[in-house]
Automatic annotation (TrEMBL):
The keyword Calcium does not apply. GO terms for cellular component: plasma membrane. This is ABC transporter ATP-binding protein. It comes from Phytoactinopolyspora halotolerans. The lineage of its organism: Bacteria, Bacillati, Actinomycetota, Actinomycetes, Jiangellales. It is a peripheral membrane protein.
Length: 343
């Protein structure tokens, strides 16, 4: 069965002053219909570039180096501008980190929703769409401008716009990071509930490993512009097979006992100017050997996970890759029930 979304050896570069920076260095990833996939990794790992590439929303200084990206079998970088607008309108939805910045400051909320619903006939029910995202007094909200809304309200409006057309794939890039901690869970739960109702697949980009593990069926870990580990959320986060996933999980707040210091990932992510000659994590990895620095790892299968590591089979099941706390928290924490927050 054809995947809804497929990235095949996708490489994207940015032309910076005096140099070229490689953001994606050969990403391989698929998303099936109805699937929920979380993308995790440090800042600079390539998550946001991948999310933007899916909508062909990359900045002007970005360039496709090689590879392919398809939605429902259509190669996005081969489409005309008119064809790409059709794909965005009919198949894609986006929720970004900055809720106010994602809305048009010159138009009232109702007018923006009507534009999103244009051509949908009977679905042109602005107040009904605002009620779906649990906004109190939707008529007042429809008359408001974005700057008159709180961050939580603005993000709910953005979600309403993204889900109004029942897209086949929703790309959510840190959609709750700018919100108050009291409303994050409610907003996240609402997004997944609306997507499940519409049969929409979700690609959820986040730094919050525990939240991703609770809500996503699958996790893809990105580092140095590649997916270094991919598999079921409960397996990847509780029993990582890649040293980077192990370090990332042990640096998460959920992995530390009260009073215990977190263990940060040593060093800093690389800034690539071209293809990495070996494993991009080698300089930060306590298990690296010379081969890691000179030979690009190819995917190997470790139980349910696909892993980019030369030593994955050797390290499989090793106590050296044990996760101290986040794995059990991810595996056993139930989904947060739908709440009544209206902020």
């Amino acid at each position: 069965m054809t995947p809804l979304m497929e990235a095949d050896d996708l490489a994207v570069d940015y032309q910076a002053p005096g140099r070229r920076v490689r953001a994606l260095d050969g990403v391989d990833l698929t998303v099936a219909r109805g699937e929920t996939v979380g993308i995790v990794g440090e800042s600079g790992s390539g998550k946001s570039t991948l999310g933007s590439a899916i909508g062909r929303l990359l900045s002007q200084n970005a360039q496709l180096s090689h590879g392919a990206l398809t939605i429902d079998g259509e190669s996005l970088f081969d489409l005309s501008a008119v064809q790409m607008r059709r794909v965005r309108r009919e198949k894609l939805g986006f929720v970004f980190q900055d809720p106010i910045g994602s809305l048009d400051p010159t138009k009232r909320v109702g007018a923006q929703l009507r534009l999103a619903l244009r051509g949908r006939g009977a679905s042109l029910d602005v107040t009904g769409q605002l009620e779906r995202v649990r906004l109190a007094d939707p008529r007042r909200i429809a008359r408001a401008y974005p700057h008159q809304l709180s961050g939580g309200m603005a993000q709910r409006v953005a979600i309403a716009m993204a889900m109004a057309t029942e897209p086949e794939l929703l790309v959510a890039d840190e959609p709750t990071a700018a919100l108050d901690s009291q409303v994050r869970d409610d907003v996240s739960t609402m997004i997944f509930a609306l997507a499940a109702e519409a049969g929409t697949s979700i690609l959820w980009l986040s730094h919050d490993l525990a939240a991703v593990g609770r809500r996503c069926g699958r996790v893809a870990v990105m580092y140095g512009g590649r997916v270094v580990e991919d598999g079921p959320a409960s397996e990847v986060l509780a029993r990582p097979a890649h040293p980077y996933t192990h370090a990332l999980a042990n640096s998460a707040p959920a992995s530390a006992a009260p009073g215990e210091r977190l263990q940060p990932v040593p060093g800093r992510p690389p800034v690539l100017t071209g293809p990495s000659p070996g494993c991009a994590f080698a300089d930060r990895c306590g298990f690296a050997i010379e081969r890691c620095r000179s030979e690009r790892p190819r995917p190997v299968r470790i139980k349910a996970q696909s892993v980019l590591c030369h030593r994955a089979e050797e390290l499989a099941g090793s106590a050296a890759l044990a996760v101290h706390g986040v794995g059990s928290a991810v595996a056993t924490t139930p989904p947060v029930p739908l709440g009544g927050d209206r902020s």
